[in-house]
Amino acid sequence: MSVTASKETLLCMSLAGRPGNFGVRFHNDLYQRLGLNFYYKAFSPTDLAAAIAGMRALGIRGCGVSMPFKEACIPLIDEMDPSAAAIQSINTIVNTDGHLKAYNTDYIAVAQLVETHAVPRTRFVLRGSGGMAKAVACAMRDAGFTDGLIVARNEQAGRALARTCGFEWQPELGDERPPLLVNVTPLGMAGDQAQTLAFERSAIEAAETAFDVVATPARTPFILEAERLGKRLITGDQVAAIQALEQFVLYTGIRPSDEDYQAAAAFARS
């Protein structure tokens, strides 16, 4: 069912350093399928505070927040849901009559994926220390992973994340060759780092599971190498689809059927 934009149309948006099309296609496809008078647009703001103020002033209903704004948004909103407050990282903002409440649906997506892929609770290395890394590390901790290493060049952020989750920290991978590798950095993302492997080939060879949160492209050099070697894969587009579904529910108050969700996710990936 097609909906024509009007003055009653509710706007949703995303804010990202490097906007992709997945969220735009996913949300707008679901709005059409369900006959909802919503429209979704991606932005790369040059002034984050002004963008959030604009959301409040213009009545924009929902906002997805991606790297590098997941922590920087915190002082700009009114209330944090426990899903965001527990890890001090935002990926979703909902505007209700000018009141901005923040959530983190990345956490939900990661928790679901490690369960559905039956990932063994083995030692893992997580590369990254930003807002998304917080969501991933906390979700893994809460899912029963106890033996983890945070690899991050930012010592302050890396040590803080490791301390929060009860893991270790070091600035480089070194000789570590764990069964589970998790990339939560822009390495392999479309742009100037598109051809960069998130981990050394020897580490990928030794691993059993490769988990990359980069969604654009879903098949990063890390994932392609792990796939070639026959590893268990968790990809960024899987994370993006689940977290986008939970955002959709927060924005609209409607949970689509699994059939509609899968169709929208397939459309967004095409």
* Spans of at least 5 consecutive residues with low confidence: none
What is the count of structural domains? 2
What value does the Rg take, in angstroms?
A: 18 Å
Global structural class: alpha/beta
Please give the share of residues in helix.
25-40%
Tell me the strand percentage band.
15-25%
The helix/strand series, from N terminus to C terminus, equals EHEHEEHEEHEHEHEEHEHEHH
CATH fold naming of the largest domain: Rossmann fold
CATH H-level superfamily of the largest domain: NAD(P)-binding Rossmann-like Domain
Spatial shape: globular
Named at the architecture level, the CATH assignment of the largest domain is 3-Layer(aba) Sandwich
Tell me the quaternary state. Answer: single chain
Largest sheet: 6 strands, mixed
Q: How many β strands by DSSP?
A: 12
Alpha-carbon distance between the two ends = 20 Å
What count of helical segments does DSSP give? 10
Strand order of the largest sheet: 2-1-3-5-6-4
CATH class of the largest domain: Alpha Beta
Please provide a written account of the structure.
By secondary structure, the protein is of the alpha/beta class. The chain has two domains: 10-104 and 240-260, 3-Layer(aba) Sandwich (Rossmann fold); 107-237, 3-Layer(aba) Sandwich (Rossmann fold). Helices cover 39% and strands 19% of the residues. The chain is built from ten helices and twelve strands. The protein has helices at 22-34, 48-58, 82-85, 105-116, 131-142, 155-165, 201-206, 221-228, 236-252, 258-269; strands at 10-15, 38-43, 62-65, 79-80, 92-96, 99-103, 124-127, 148-151, 168-170, 180-183, 209-212, 232-234. The strands form two sheets. The protein has a six-stranded mixed sheet with strand order 2-1-3-5-6-4, sandwiched between helices. Strands 9-8-7-10-11-12 form a six-stranded parallel sheet, with helices on both faces. Strand 1 (10-15), helix 1 and strand 2 (38-43) form a beta-alpha-beta unit. Helix 1 (22-34) runs antiparallel to helix 10 and helix 5 (131-142) packs parallel to helix 6 (155-165). The longest helix has 17 residues, at 236-252. The chain is globular, with a radius of gyration of 18 Å. 45% of the residues are buried. The mean pLDDT is 95.
